[in-house]
Amino acid sequence: MAYLPNTDADRRAMLDAIGAPDVETLFRDVPSHLLRPAVDLPPPASEPELTAEMRALARRNRPLGDWACFLGAGITHRFVPQVVQATIRRPEFATSYTPYQAEASQGYLQAIFEFQTIVAELYGLDVANASLYDGATAVAEGALMAVVQTGRTHLLVSATCNPETLRVLDTYAAGRGVRVTRIPRRGATSDLDAAARLLAGGDVAVVIAPQPNFLGALEPVGELTRAAHAAGALALVAADPIAAAVLEPPGASGADIAAGDGQPLGIPPQLGGPTVGLLACTEALLRRMPGRLAGRTSDARGATAYCLTLQTREQHIRRERATSNICTNHALMALAATAHVGRLGARGLERIADISSRRAHHLARAAAERPGYGLAFPDAPFLWEFVLRCPLSADEVAERMAAKGILAGLPLGGFDAQLGDCLLVCTTELTTPAMLDQFLAALPKAADIPVAAGPRAAP
After folding, report:
1. Which CATH number covers residue 425?
2. Which of 325, 340, 355 marks a domain boundary?
3. Half-sphere exposure (Cβ direction) of 104: Cα atoms closer than 13 Å
4. 27, 31, 153 from 34: Cα distances, Å
5. Domain count, the chain
6. Would you state the pLDDT for residue 444?
7. Same-domain status, 289 and 377
8. Does the residue 12 lie in any domain?
9. Which helix (H) or strand (E) holds 179?
10. Distance, CA of 185 to chain centre
11. Interhelix angle for 331-368 vs 433-442, to 10°?
């Protein structure tokens, strides 16, 4: 927050304008014990002393690049070309706010238009919006699009979606009086028979399935999509954008809506955020999209020009006609994703996906050969994330390996009690062959630690 130096005259003028005799009057309704609470702080420090203290605190952090990182679960450690940072740090982009006056924001509007084009092509759908906050809000907004389009108030969502997405979806649905039902997991993927039974009621607005899912496995999205359409529902695929570059895109599998998180596209993990939400749909659903949409047109002289062609939010149209209360888009993060994909191109994304997948399969095979270890779902196809069953508590394995400079993966017991002995392991193009060897060498032996694992993973 910038420091705004108001003079005594400035303060007096503001108080006179609102009819208050003094500043204290503004806070008279606040209880005195809350107005100036006692705070146990050290004595004041000079600026050099404070700077030295902050640097000492910063040195206690350990950058992610110093670790052999195998964490995934929705936020992945991927290479970010320098052109991305060089682009988003330009002051005309870094300091820009939402382009309300399109004629004054041609560069940013062009970047947003290119971003939309990239997302639409990756997902194989007709149109994409100017971005949302993250993957979870994108899925939730897409689900509400389906509710409005179909007039139904029942959502079916695969239990294999990211748990954060499920929680956000529940929150959105509760506020709109919408019922959410989980499609149970069978093995590593959605139970198709259960989905068919749940669809038989004829009241489902949309079926939501991830690709890949939270456990790294590839879902039968084509079958789920066809089942949804047969029941008069829409289909939404929550797709990893890099996976969409090598798998059949959601649109090609028949999905009406696709959503995802753009974090793998040029955005570092950053303690989990900020990221950028991706949302695309068929042309038939265009008017249901939240947020804004940038378009390309021609000006009075015939030159290419960009404008905001759709702004279905309550700041711009009547509140009762707004599609969502989403107020803005993560334009700077969308710009990062645009620069990233522009630098790598389609072949670059395919190459990244190929490297990540090859290394994951190599690691999975080698780890499963260690005594006591194995794949929790050996028959489930995956790309670059897999579930490794351990002979002891996954939390203990992760703690022991962290002491050796390895972030071994995400222990899954906190999400599913049946997976207390399981690690979700992820590899990317930054996971070098040396890191794979380091991981394998550091895996604790079953005899090293007392067993404290939860129940075995369900077959």
Report:
1. 3.90.1150.10
2. 340
3. 7
4. 11, 5, 44
5. 2
6. 94
7. no
8. no
9. strand 179-183
10. 22
11. 50
Structural domain of residue 214, as residue ranges?
A: 82-340
Q: What is the pLDDT of residue 317?
A: 57
Calpha distance 226→285 (Å, rounded): 18
Same domain? 180 vs 140: yes
If DSSP states are collapsed to H, E and C, what string results for 87-121? HHCCHHHHCCCCCCCHHHCHHHHHHHHHHHHHHHH
- The Cα 352–Cα 359 span in angstroms is 11
- Size (the chain), residues: 459
Do 306 and 294 meet the contact criterion of CB atoms below 8 Å apart? yes
DSSP state of 267: -
Report which of 374, 365, 442, 447 is spatially closest to residue 404, judged by C-alpha positions: 442
Distance, in Å, from the CA atom of 135 to the CA atom of 261, rounded to the nearest integer, reads 4
SS3 11: helix
DSSP letter at 322 equals: -
Which parts of the chain register pLDDT below 70?
1-4, 95-103, 312-323, 325, 327-328, 447-459
Residue 219 CA to residue 213 CA, distance in Å, equals 7
Report how far residue 81's alpha carbon sits from residue 337's, in angstroms, rounded to the nearest whole number: 11
Give domain status of residue 284, yes or no: yes
Cα torsion for 274, 181, 146, 206, to the nearest 10°? 110
Same domain, residue pair 136 and 276:
yes
384 and 317 within one domain? no
pTM value is 0.85
β-sheet with 385-389: strand ranges across: 374-375, 385-389, 422-426, 410-411
346 CB neighbour count, 10 Å cutoff = 12
Closest CA to 282 of 251, 323, 308, 253: 251
- Considering the domain boundaries, does residue 172 fall inside one? yes
Q: Using one digit for the tens of pLDDT, what is the confidence trace for 371-410? A: 999 999 999 999 999 999 999 999 999 999 999 999 999 9
Helix (H) or strand (E) holding 210: strand 204-211
The predicted pLDDT at position 327 comes to 65
pLDDT of residue 104: 72
Question: Among all chains, which residue has been given the structure tokens 């068919």?
Answer: 196
